[in-house]
Amino acid sequence: MRRKRLGGQSPLGHAIEASPPIHGHGGSILIAMPFDPTNSHDVIVASHSGPLFGEVVVPGAKNSVLKLMAATLLADGTYRLTNVPVIDDVDIMADLLEALGLRITKIAAPRGEVGQHLEIVNSGAIRPVAPFELADRIRASVNVVGPLLGRFGEIDIALPGGDDFGGRPIDMHLRGLEAMGAVFDVTSDGIVGRCQRLRGADIEFDFPSVGATENMLMASVVAEGTTTLRNAAREPEIVDLCEMLKKMGCRIEGVGTSNLVIHGVLPSTLQSVTHCVVTDRVQAATYVAAVAMCGGSIRIERAVAEHMGMMLSRFTDMGISFQIDPAGIVATAPQRLSSIDVATLPYPGVATDYKPLVVAMLSIAQGVGIVTENLYPGRFRYVEELRKLGADISIDGHHAVVRGVDHLRGASVVAPDIRAGAALVVAGLAAQGMTEISDVFHIDRGYDDIVGRLAGLGASVTRIRPEN
Ligand code: UD1
């Protein structure tokens, strides 16, 4: 068995010849549809909101469901994913998987559930060529590489898109798969990969990359022999993927730790399953941020406190109090938030995805807080938008120094990405006057009805579609 240490420079490039997505299966309630550009001019209008009260139910995690969907490439059969968030990235991933040959039906969740169900049929007729225009739209498109190479020994895909936080290389994905026997041709058009059956390898990541861990997992479960992944990422969404793979018949040890040992099996021994997507911890934290900035006390149903441990502890340092039970958490705002210093880190550290929320909260907290970004140097682009609301934030390299002001004031701002967009909506609720957030299509990629959920808590927020 070979041992390979991973890391280094990115093989970035773009554009691959498009092939048309396959649609048109019927007989069900809803069918996966391409991205709807008609909502791209929508704006969210948030007005100063008093204390929030009531209950919000959080659906499944974007960062889990997209990988669970990719995992269905591994074995034939009919899968059902439940607790699936109603978000655009699920639609884009569904289109991508349909273009590869899966059939996906969206089914409204039964009464008492949130989100939707996905029925995914894998008949084995897979064409491992991912159309550029779909792969380019989401980061998670790269997660089809592992299962496709593992099962079919072939992949042709554009380099992945997604939120623009600066460079987002995939060198660790490719080097890991190379260590297992894959050969890649990386050009400005994308990636073409080939292999015989992948072989187990001993791999140590330089950095616990979420995406690389997931790709290596999905490749190694059907490889010949045993694969060890050291310094692997261990986010709750990766545990969720491992749980589904194990139900399918995959043999994985060390789930939830940074050392994963995977004993490969033949794809023909795997079976399709039903799986409930883990709760979205970032959406849950968004509602904590909302009550923290507006005041009040809310119940966040389905939030899993254990998955948010470090973040909840830092929120507690800011003065928010929590009551935790197995079904959710109650978050109660202090009179005024206190400033803290916080640094983003891989799980179990404070996730980079929480950071725009924390910066927004600090902008009206008592004192000065320093936020350090350790994952994506470019992930401070929304600061300019928060400044338009009156926030006092200066950037020094990968640190943001946030001096709390007494109040924010409404303005027109632009959502630069999913999480920053949500943070601007929440900040708008705390700002005096009216805040108009445009480019909400970013928010739609990862948030399931944020406006309806906030309004349900008493927030003054609405979504409008400007006339042409
Ligand atoms: C996932 C999440 C994203 C989250 C991030 C970190 C999805 C769809 N997205 O992204 O919301 O912010 O985890 O928690 O699940 N890196 C390399 N080479 C690689 C892979 C990554 O240098 O081959 C670097 C990245 O540029 C980044 C860091 O490692 O600086 C973390 O990336 P990674 O953990 O892989 O994040 P994603 O899986 O892309």
UniProtKB/TrEMBL annotation:
Cell location: Cytoplasm
UniProt main location, coarse: cytoplasm
Signal peptide extent: none
One cellular component (GO) term of this entry: cytoplasm
Catalysed reactions, semicolon-separated: phosphoenolpyruvate + UDP-N-acetyl-alpha-D-glucosamine = UDP-N-acetyl-3-O-(1-carboxyvinyl)-alpha-D-glucosamine + phosphate
Region feature (Disordered): 1-20
Top-level enzyme category: transferase
Gene3D superfamilies in UniProt: Enolpyruvate transferase domain
GO molecular function: UDP-N-acetylglucosamine 1-carboxyvinyltransferase activity
This protein's UniProt keywords: Cell cycle, Cell division, Cell shape, Cell wall biogenesis/degradation, Cytoplasm, Peptidoglycan synthesis, Transferase
Domain Enolpyruvate transferase: from-to ranges: 49-453
Swiss-Prot/TrEMBL GO biological process terms: cell division; cell wall organization; peptidoglycan biosynthetic process; regulation of cell shape; UDP-N-acetylgalactosamine biosynthetic process
Pathway: Cell wall biogenesis; peptidoglycan biosynthesis
EC number, UniProt record: 2.5.1.7
Family to which this protein belongs: Belongs to the EPSP synthase family. MurA subfamily.
PANTHER family: UDP-N-ACETYLGLUCOSAMINE 1-CARBOXYVINYLTRANSFERASE
Official protein name in the record: UDP-N-acetylglucosamine 1-carboxyvinyltransferase
Organism: freshwater metagenome
